[in-house]
Amino acid sequence: MAKSKTPDLMEKIVSLCKRRGFIFQSSEIYGGLNSCWDYGPLGVELKRNVKAAWWNDVVRNREDIVGLDSSILMHPKVWEASGHVDSFSDPMVDCKSCKKRFRFDDLEENVCPNCGGELTEPRQFNMMFKTFMGPVEDDSSVVYMRPETAQGIFVNFLNVQASMRMKLPFGIAQIGKSFRNEITPGNFIFRTREFEQMEIEYFVEPGTDEQWYETWIKERFDWYLRYGVRAEKLRLEAHGEEDLAHYAKACTDIEYAFPFGWKELEGIANRTDYDLRQHTRSSGKRLEYFNDQTHEKVVPFVIEPSGGVDRAVLVFLVDAFDEETVRGETRVVLRLHPKLAPIKAAIFPLVKRDGMPEKARRIVETLQPHFAVFYDEGGSVGRRYRRMDEAGTPFGITVDSETLENDTVTVRDRDTMEQVRVKIAELREHLAERMEGWTRDDK
Ligand SMILES: [Zn+2]
Q1: Which of 331, 375, 384, 423 is least surrounded by Cβ atoms within 10 Å, i.e. has the fewest?
Q2: What architecture does CATH give domain 343-436?
C-alpha cells in the first residue's frame, strides 16, 4: 500500500479535525478569534483520554505522587515571588509601517519580515494576562491568570505534605488551564494563549536532584512511546545555559518532528529549591521538609516534568495520521492507540431491516458500560468504515444476515482492514484483549 506524506500535512490534519468533529476554530461564526480553538465531540474525548492516561500513569499507579487542582486566580504576590512579574517577558518590536508585532528573538534581520519596514527598539512585554478582581479596576485589584500550574503546587507544598504525610521523594501532579499572552501564537493548537498543562513537581533531597532529573527525562520520553508515538519522531534536546529559565539549573525538552519542524512537546526542568525559597522569603512561611530519620530540616529540590495537553493531542493526531491507496482510492486513517481513540468500536447493521438495527442496538447496550461505542446505520457499510477510520476508531462491528442465524458479528480492524467473525457473547472480551495487545505495525 503506497503512502504519501505531502508538505501540506498540517492543512490535511486541520481539515480532518474540523470534518470529523475534533477541533473547531473558536467563535467561527464571528470570523474566529486568533489562536483560540474549541474541542468538538471527538476532540474532547481524545483530550480526556490523553489526560486520563497521564493521570493514571503518574498519580493513580504510583504511591509517591498525589494530585491537586488549584485555582487559576492566585494572590498577586505569588507572581512577584516566582519572578513572573519581573522576568516573564519577551522582547517585542513593532513595525513602524504595517504595525505588525514580532518577537525580537524570532527575527533574523532588523527589518519587518512582513513589509521590510523599519522596526521600533525592542521592548519587554510581560506575557501574563492581567485582570481585576472585584468591582473596582485599580492597581490594588490587579490579579493575573496563571501562566503555569506549577505555582499552585508550590504554594500548597505544606498542605499536601502534611495532610498526606508524604515522605521525600514525592510529587504533586496537576492538570489545568494556563494563559500566556504570546506575541506570536500559531501552528494550530501548538502555541495558543489559553492552553492546558499537565505538570508534576517532584520534590527530592538536595544532592539527589541530578539523578532524579535523568530518571524523569527517561520516564517521560518512554510515556509517549507507550501510547504509540513513533520513536524516530521524538528526540531529547538539552538547553544550553543561555536558554535556561531564571529558575532552572538544567532543562531538557522532549521534541517532536512536527510538519513545521522539531518543536518542544514537554520540558523536564531541574528547578532547584528556587521556588520554595522564594515563597518562604515572600510569605514568611517556611516551606521546608523535616526528615524524621536525620532530624534535619531541608528545602527540597524540585524536578518538573511539564507537558502541554494540547501539544500532546496534536502529537498524537499528527503521528497517527496516515493516508494510503486502497483499490485506487485514498484511505485516510488515524492510527491512534486504542486507549486514546475517542470511540473504541462502531456498530453497524448491514441494512436497515430484517431486525438488524435492533440486534445492533442490543450490542451497543451491552458494550456501552465498558467502552465508548458509536451506532451508525447511515450510508453504505464501506462509507461507514471510512468515517470511522478517519475518527481513529479501532474496531467496526457489523451485524449481517449470518448474525441472525448464529449470533456472530464481523469485527473489522481499522489498521489492517481485516475482518474476523466473533460470537456476540465473546465480543467484549475479544475487544478488550485486542486493545490491550495493540501495537503499531506500520512503524
Ligand atoms: Zn511591516
Answers
A1: 423
A2: 3-Layer(aba) Sandwich (3.40)
